[in-house]
Design a protein that fits this description.
alpha/beta, elongated
C-alpha cells in the first residue's frame, strides 16, 4: 500500500517510514499539509498518516482537503498526536474524516495492528464499491446474476456478499400506486360468506 506520511518533525517521519517499509508498504513523505495535498493530488495514495499539529495546514485541515478530492478508492486517514485527544476533540476529528489515531512515541506493533485494520476496511470498501457498480440485474424481476450464472433475489445476493440483513417496508410512491388501490379494491368487494 502507498502511504503518505506527513510530519514537520524529521525524526518522526523517519521512524514511521522505517516501520511502514518494514511492513512492506511504500512510503511518500511530506513536511506539512500543503506539501502533502500537492503530493496527494498527483499520486495514487491509499493511506495518509498525518501529524495533528503542523504549520501550513494541520492534520485536520489536510483531512478535510483529502476528503473533498474525489478519488477512485477510499483513503484511510490516521491522525498522529503526542497527547491523547479529549472526547470533544476526538469526536470532532472523527466527524471531519479521521479514521484512526496514533500516539507518539510510536510503537511498531501498534502501527502494524492499525494498518491491518485499515487494510481490512479498505478491502471492504472496495468490495462494496464493486458490488454497487457491477451488478447484472434483470430489468423485469430485479433478480441479480452471481458469478456462477445463477439468478437470485437481490436480498439473498447482498446478504451472501456482505453479510447484510434486510427489513422490508413500502416506499411512499408504492404505497400510493400499489397499496392504496389494493386496499380500495378490497374495501369495494362484497364480503364472502
Amino acid at each position: 500500500m502507498k502511504v503518505l506520511v506527513v510530519d514537520d518533525d524529521m525524526i518522526c517521519q523517519r521512524v514511521l517510514q522505517l516501520s511502514l517499509e518494514s511492513l512492506g508498504h511504500q512510503v511518500v513523505m511530506a513536511k506539512n499539509g500543503r506539501e502533502a495535498l500537492g503530493i496527494f493530488q498527483d499520486t495514487d495514495i491509499q493511506m495518509v498518516i498525518s501529524d495533528w499539529r503542523m504549520p501550513e495546514m494541520d492534520g485536520m485541515e489536510l483531512s478535510q482537503a483529502v476528503r473533498s478530492i474525489r478519488k477512485a478508492g477510499y483513503v484511510y486517514f490516521i491522525l498522529v498526536s503526542s497527547t491523547r485527544p479529549k472526547a470533544d476533540r476526538y469526536a470532532e476529528a472523527v466527524s471531519m474524516g479521521i479514521d484512526d489515531f496514533l500516539m507518539k512515541p510510536f510503537d511498531h506493533d501498534e502501527i502494524s495492528n492499525r494498518l491491518r485494520v485499515a487494510e481490512r476496511i479498505m478491502q471492504f470498501t472496495t468490495e462494496i464499491r464493486q458490488l454497487k457498480s457491477l451488478l447484472p440485474i434483470c430489468m423485469y424481476c430485479r433478480k441479480i446474476r452471481d458469478d456462477g450464472n445463477y439468478w437470485q433475489q437481490i436480498e439473498s445476493y447482498i446478504r451472501e456478499a456482505t453479510g447484510s440483513n434486510f427489513s422490508h417496508g413500502i416506499c411512499p410512491d408504492c404505497y400510493e400506486k400499489v397499496v392504496k388501490p389494493e386496499l380500495a379494491q378490497l374495501a369495494a368487494e362484497p364480503p364472502q360468506d
